[in-house]
Input
Amino acid sequence: MKLDVVGKNIRKYRLLKSVSQEKLAERADLTPNYIGMIERGEKTPSLQSFIKIVNALEVSADVILCDVLKDGYTVKDSLLHEKLSKISDEDRIKIYDVIDTMISHSKRKFL
Output
């Protein structure tokens, strides 16, 4: 299992929220060094630390874990839906066309 993805997702959402490692560490009652090691995939957080981090980031655990969960694509689909709902109908149609083209050119045909 690729648990280093958890750290990458923590970093991703930390940066999206414009929070420094130091500020996240302070909010989660952890050290900045420990946050850095998690983000680089050098350490896997304990459950207790993981909960502190997601609470400090104000994100759900499934968002951070979506790349390692068996049903993680459900989370990604939900996030994609949220992003698509914020763009124009014209842009949404273009994106769906690109997705349809990618699917039609994939090695495994679905439709």
The radius of gyration is 17 Å. The mean pLDDT is 89.
